[in-house]
């Protein structure tokens, strides 16, 4: 009998000659270290298993790597795989720190507690305890452990080794989603005042970041909003269960790594609502499948303001690790030629900041914004040295962020021109509306213009996420007209017209 064989490229992992039941767990090892666990797909007619890589992992592959696959705790195949024809060895580790990384349950590249210094887990729990006390003291909100931070301790009293954060939640006192949302924003303001770095995923999900270097985070804490409405329990972002089947209060102490943290009154009920009835059985391949009825309510009640932010941050970290390009785009070059001397420019979606720096070097003042935190940190360190470029975080899917940018531009004084390179390829529909409304208001100033480039080719996009897509040119023009904007194409030289279109946008005066 021929031994199983393993091959791979940047798209997929292929196993031949192995009889593995569909749905069984497969562990992928890099240099003897587990980096990903996935369920075996159904084999083809020849018995070949073809497993697509998680997109966030696929875009990182370079050089060669020693890969192995385990099934039922036994190695079934191994091989040295060449992804690119160079001498480097692929190493899945964090830029700047060398900390080993894995593919987490979201398909993202992340740290895990497995194999890490035990002091890190203790630091996470220290911060969790401090946060619990802060919100109890300042706003009277009682946090308790949930999600993976509840699951591991209920099983064996300890945080799960393959986890990478701590999950906390509170049960809102409000039955109306609007009041639930207002309560969450009040909590966010308090946390910011307390010095926390807060990222808002939705109107019911906050994430507190604890940076660990220039482009890395040591860990983060999640705060989920739970609430009851019309007889149903909702556990952001996923759970929806009859309220009489999930008992949260009174909270009771739960042993977690030798210390006591607040837990729900009936942990098993909450875990069943989150993970399903088989929550007691460990499943390293677990992924959330949100019921449609729950998804509809969470989206329309609490929305989602963090579309692809983590994917962009992974992408920028990979770019930084590989050595980012510092040459300007063609849009930056043509924009610099058309701007009046000493202009003020708002660069929307600045990424690593090369275009913003190019415009500043030509005598313009630039406010450059993005929602990718590592990109902004790197850009500030490398391009923000003289104050000609101001780098700030902004989330263009949130109306309040757009309003803040309007105020920032007003504070800068005078005419503000808008610059956006392929931004509309990355924005969600909500982001389109918020951004076009912002541009409309900024272009009300006489003489102001928006310099945009949009990718229109079928190949436009990224392997890492689905939202970075070609722009339908007809739809784009229709959306501009909705906001009293008109576009003049600038591709008169024909360069790149097959893949992208440079446009000069003006506001139509009525």
Automatic annotation (TrEMBL):
One of its GO terms (molecular function) is methyltransferase activity. PANTHER family: FUKUTIN RELATED PROTEIN, RIBITOL 5-PHOSPHATE TRANSFERASE FKRP. The keyword Protein biosynthesis does not apply. SUPFAM superfamilies: S-adenosyl-L-methionine-dependent methyltransferases. It is an enzyme of class 2 (transferase). It comes from Arthrobacter burdickii. InterPro entries: LicD_transferase (IPR052613), Methyltransf_25 (IPR041698), SAM-dependent_MTases_sf (IPR029063). Its EC number is 2.1.-.-. One of its GO terms (biological process) is methylation. The keyword Ribosomal protein does not apply. This is Class I SAM-dependent methyltransferase. It holds the Pfam family Methyltransf_25. Residues 345-396 form the Methyltransferase domain. Keywords: Methyltransferase, Transferase.
């Amino acid at each position: 009998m021929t031994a199983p064989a393993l091959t791979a490229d940047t798209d997929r992992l292929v196993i031949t000659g192995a009889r593995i039941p569909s749905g069984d767990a497969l562990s992928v090892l890099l240099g003897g270290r587990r980096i990903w666990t996935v369920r075996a797909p159904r084999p083809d007619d020849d018995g070949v298993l073809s497993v697509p890589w998680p997109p966030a992992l696929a875009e990182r592959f370079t050089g060669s790597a020693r890969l192995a696959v385990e099934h039922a705790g036994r190695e079934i195949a191994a091989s040295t795989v060449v992804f690119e024809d160079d001498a480097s060895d692929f190493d899945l580790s964090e830029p700047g720190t060398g900390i080993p990384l894995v593919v987490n349950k979201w398909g993202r590249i992340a740290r895990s507690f497995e194999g890490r210094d035990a002091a890190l887990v203790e630091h996470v729990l220290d911060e969790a305890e401090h946060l619990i006390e802060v919100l109890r003291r300042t706003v009277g909100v009682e946090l308790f452990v949930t999600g993976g931070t509840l699951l591991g301790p209920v099983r064996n009293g300890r945080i799960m080794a393959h986890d990478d954060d701590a999950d906390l939640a509170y049960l809102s006192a409000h039955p109306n989603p609007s009041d639930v949302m207002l309560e969450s924003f009040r909590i966010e303001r308090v946390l910011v005042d307390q010095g926390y770095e807060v990222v808002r995923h939705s109107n019911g999900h906050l994430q507190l970041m604890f940076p660990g270097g220039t482009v890395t985070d040591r860990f983060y804490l999640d705060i989920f909003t739970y609430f009851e409405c019309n007889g149903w329990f909702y556990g952001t972002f996923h759970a929806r269960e009859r309220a009489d089947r999930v008992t949260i209060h009174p909270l009771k102490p739960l042993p977690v790594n030798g210390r006591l943290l607040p837990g729900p009154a009936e942990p098993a009920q909450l875990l069943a609502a989150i993970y399903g009835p088989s929550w007691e059985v460990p499943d390293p391949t677990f992924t959330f499948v949100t019921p449609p009825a729950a998804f509809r309510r969470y989206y329309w009640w609490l929305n989602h303001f963090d579309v692809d932010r983590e994917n962009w941050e992974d992408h920028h970290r990979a770019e930084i690790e590989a050595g980012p390009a510092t040459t300007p785009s063609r849009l930056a070059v043509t924009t610099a030629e058309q701007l009046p001397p000493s202009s003020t420019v708002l660069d929307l979606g600045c990424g690593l900041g090369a275009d913003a720096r190019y415009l500043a070097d030509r005598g313009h003042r630039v406010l450059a914004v993005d929602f990718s935190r590592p990109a902004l940190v790197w850009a500030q360190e490398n391009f923000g040295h003289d104050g000609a470029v101001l780098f700030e975080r902004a989330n263009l899917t949130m109306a309040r962020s757009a309003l803040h940018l309007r105020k920032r531009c007003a504070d800068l004084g005078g005419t503000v021109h808008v610059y956006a390179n392929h931004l509309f390829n990355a924005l969600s529909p909500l982001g389109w509306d918020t951004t076009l409304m912002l541009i409309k208001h900024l272009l009300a100033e006489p003489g102001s213009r928006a310099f945009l480039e949009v990718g229109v080719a079928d190949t436009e996009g990224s392997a890492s996420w689905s939202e970075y897509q070609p722009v339908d040119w007809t739809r784009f023009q229709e959306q501009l007209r909705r906001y009293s904007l008109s576009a003049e194409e600038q591709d008169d030289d024909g360069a790149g017209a097959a893949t992208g279109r440079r446009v000069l946008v003006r506001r139509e005066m009525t």
